[in-house]
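Format notes (please read before filing issues)

Several people have asked whether sequences and structure tokens are stored in separate files. They are not. Every record keeps both together, in the order shown below: the sequence lines, then the token lines. Line labels are part of the format and must not be stripped during preprocessing.
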Amino acid sequence: MQNPTTTTLGYALFATRWLQAPLYFGLVAAQGVYVYKFFKELWTLILMCVSGHATETYVMLAVLKLVDVVMIANLLIMVIVGGYETFVSRIGLQGHRDQPEWLSHVNSNVLKVKLATAIVGISSVHLLQMFVDVHHTSRHALLWGTVIHMAFIASAAILAYMSGPMVAHTDRGHTDRAPAAPAQAPGHASRQQAEPESAPLPTAAAIPPQPAPDTDAEARIHAAGFPARKVLEEFDQQHPRGLDRDVLARLGKADFVDARRNVVFVGPPGTGKTHLAVALGMRACQAGHRVLFATAAEWAARLAGARAAGRLDAELAALDDHPLLIVDEVGYTPFDAASAGLFFQLVAHRYERASLIVTSDRPLGRWDEVFGPSAPALTDRLAHHAEIVRLDGDSYRTRRAATAWAD
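Then the structure lines:
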């Protein structure tokens, strides 16, 4: 039982994070200053070129100065957006077409590494300016400029090296925080106290136990058309970077199907998107829901066939008997306007009526590369009531193949 006074004090201290909000708005003002500085330098360069007084060295130095201003402005954006998201409050950008990919897994370690690498880039521009204008730069300034630049590189490398163990330590900390066990018989309790080291370690995330499949569940799993049987317990949660394990544990309850919400897995090939989609589909089957699985190309062919037969509306209505549809591999093949229109009809028909699980190799903001002009309206409906799960990392299949080759 927590002390109410302690809890109130903790909430009050946590609320002080909003004191940082004005600091980020101050950085926004600083961003405006750099915009003014950029156009002032650009106007000066244009006047010098038009008047014929600009030498090649002057133009190069002026351009480098413009690049320097832009890079510092980029650094400010990273601090403003990433810092606010990490230390003040989450920014609701899920599904926004312009959401930066790194923002979905930003934390203090990622932010520090990005800032360090940005500083190295700015330092590189300054050092290049010195070497371009070497005739007007003292050897002392060149020496110290090089030394400072190498110090920035070394510090960035150290931060990048340390961020890996720190993230792993954080994950282990989350792993060690297992939920309290239910009350047990005295005999069990005494055995636990006598043998504390023999107790099983908790998993990386509190994935709810898989229900025992009955005859009907097996029939639903067979009818779903899964390419293989996959379960959440077999998913390597340590492989993808930035995976929100709490979200995965919550989805494992299959409550999103009853709530008529969608799930979108986004990430490069081989990061486990299909595994998770199938595993959640199997959980839904075991929870009593009918599920259908197919790739995006297969869904396009099915809907095109129904339209050609003049029964597209009947086909969409028949799919309502399945509370969950899984669309795999969106983005691997671009669609023509007709197929894109069919996908929009599918998503629009199921909007707030039934659930979809979609896997894709690109964020929603780039789905115009697949669906063309239909993409904004399609993603708007898909993401409105959706869990967007980002998976980053190298291909699990490639990693296993490399390991097998090495063995």
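For reference, the curators noted about this record: The first helix runs from residue 4 to 15. The radius of gyration is 27 Å.
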